[in-house]
Amino acid sequence: MKWRRAIVLAASVVSSAPAALAAPPPSVRMVGEETACPTPAQVVTVLRRLLPRTKVTAESGPAAPADAAIKDEGSQYRVSIAGQEREFVDNARQCAERARHAAVFVALVLDPPMIPEPSDAPPAPPAPPAAAPPSLPPAERAATPSRAPPTFTALDLSLGAILQVAPSAGERRTTVASGVMAWVRAKRGFHLALGAGVLRGAFEFDGVVADAWWVPIHLAAGMGFESDRWELGAELGPSVGILSVLARDLPQAQNQIRLEWGVRAAGFSRLWFSKNIALHLSGEALVRPSRYALLIDPEGQVGLTPVLWLGGSAGLSFKLE
Q1: Cβ(180)–Cβ(151) below 8 Å
Q2: Measuring CA to CA, which residue among 203, 215, 265, 268 is closest to residue 240?
Q3: Backbone phi and psi for residue 202, each to the nearest 5 degrees, phi listed first
Q4: φ and ψ at residue 124, rounded to 5 degrees
Q5: CATH 2.40.160.20, applies to 154-319
Q6: What are the DSSP calls for 201-260, one per residue?
Q7: What are the sequence ranges of the domains in the chain?
Q8: Across the 321 residues of the chain, what is the mean pLDDT of every consecutive 10-residue run?
């Protein structure tokens, strides 16, 4: 009912206008006071849905001749665009309702509906009714499959830098690894995620330093919660990784390759600063219960791989829908 009243009020003005624009402009500014009721931003939020092909922005200050302007006068407010102006009365000062009325008025002025002119030609005789298709027996009607509407899965891709730290334990000092990660998520709400990356670091023991490379592969199930621009989520799932270790500055050292497994828990936050691009931040904890002994010739066993890794990442997310 609210939308219907807004359309009737605005349409009455548009229908009485001496001229209408041929097509909506590529861009328009909504100008008004940020402390008014409604604000230009409230009107722009509705107007973007009514004019999807027009870039609509909110501004404060004086309006130019090509701008749309809104002025709050207490129990009433005025909207003007393209030489047309409309005064609305609203003693209750319902800002959201005012924004809808103003947006509909501006949209109908900039992109009025096309009404065909009446024709003098006599109406064509009605077409004869089409023959009804032969009815199927009950058994055949029951066997006819119904077509379900197609469904599509929304995906997004996240790329970013990652830093992981394993606290010191026994002979091993604190280990730091850094690299890049990529994630693909099927969203929204409950989602599944797949991530892979490459990290480089070094294990430091008494008298021995070993360079290490990791290729982690994570699977996760998660839940996300969204507002207009922010998204928060948490994930949990298994993790496997390929670890390559080679002692530094030891002529007889041999490269060792291990397959690690564990469990990963993470939380993430994303700020969607445009329709398809977001800033991505996350923190995670990775537990690898199976520890491997690092054997380095000619030193022998110098220590064990870490059980606990703590990390964080930052990057960008892109919608693939």
Answers
A1: no
A2: 215
A3: -150, 140
A4: -70, 145
A5: yes
A6: EEEEETTEEEEEEEEEEEEEEEEEEE-SSEEEEEEEEEEEEEEEEEESS-TT---EEEEE
A7: 2-110, 154-319
A8: 52 50 79 89 89 87 84 89 88 89 88 67 68 58 52 76 90 90 82 93 83 92 84 92 82 77 92 87 92 69 85 91 64
